[in-house]
Each structure stands twice: as C-alpha cells, then as structure tokens.
Amino acid sequence: MAFHALTATVLLQGISGLVGGYALMADPSGALIGLPLVWLEGTPFSDYFVPGTILLTALGVCPLVIGWGLWRGLSWAWYGSLLVGASLATWILVEILMIGYQPDPPLQAFYGLLSLVILALSSARSVRQRLLQTEHG
C-alpha cells in the first residue's frame, strides 16, 4: 500500500511540475495559472521564466524519472524518492521565504503537505524493504 502511494505521489509531483513549469515558461507573467507578478517583487526574478524552468526540470522531469524507477522497483529510486520529498520541501520553504506565505491559491500548503507525505512514505519500512532488498541481498 505505502509503495503504491509513494509511486503515485512522486508521479503526481512530476506531472504537476511539468505542467506548472511549462505554464510559467510559456507565460512568464504568471497570468496563465493565476500567479501575480507582484509576488516576485524583492526577489532576484523579474518574471516566472527561471522559476518555471527550475520547476519543470527539478520538480517535473526528475520526479517522473524517479517515479519510473519506483514503478520498476529499482533500488536507486528509493533514494530518489527521498530527494523528491526533500527538494519539494526546500522549494516551498525558499518560496515562502522569498514571497511570503500565499494562501490563495493554496499551492504552498498543498505542496508542502505533499513533500511531507512523500518523505513519510519513503520512510515506511515496507517501502525500504521492497526497494532495498535487492541491494542488500
């Protein structure tokens, strides 16, 4: 159960990262997905293109590769799932530090929670045993 939930949440993050990152790159004003440019005042970014690029690659493509590894039962994917959870938590934390907490839309709360779910599922004994059994015997 935990293994399938982990695989699903990592793949959800990957798809979400691809869609969100692409939308921010396609429309760096953020209007396409309802993110105002005013949120970026005081940050190093004048628009959402660079954050969108990072989102697409680090939280889109990478989680999809790791999700594929989980689906295939590859031991490295366990480490990757921890990386996805930690990367997503870091992304949200840095975002909150840079632009403040934005409750509308509640993306920060949702993805902050998703990062914790991914980390918790990755830490489940059944998941570790399933993915690391081939690595240790």
Provide an overview of this structure.
The chain has helices spanning 2-26, 49-72, 76-99, 107-123, 125-132. With 137 residues, it is mostly helical. It has one domain (2-132). The mean pLDDT is 95.
Give a short summary of the structure.
The chain is mainly alpha-helical. The protein has one domain.
- Which spans have pLDDT < 50 for at least 5 consecutive residues? none
Report the principal-axis shape.
Answer: elongated
pLDDT averaged residue by residue: 95
DSSP strand tally: 0
Category from helices, strands and their pairing: mainly alpha
| Largest sheet: number of strands, sense, barrel closure | none
Number of separate domains: 1
Order of helices and strands: HHHHH
Helicity, as a percent range:
over 70%
| Tally of contiguous helical segments | 5
Characteristic key phrases:
137 residues
Write the layout of secondary structure elements.
Layout lengths: L1 H25 L22 H24 L3 H24 L7 H17 L1 H8 L5
Helix pairs in contact: 1-2, 1-4, 2-3, 3-4
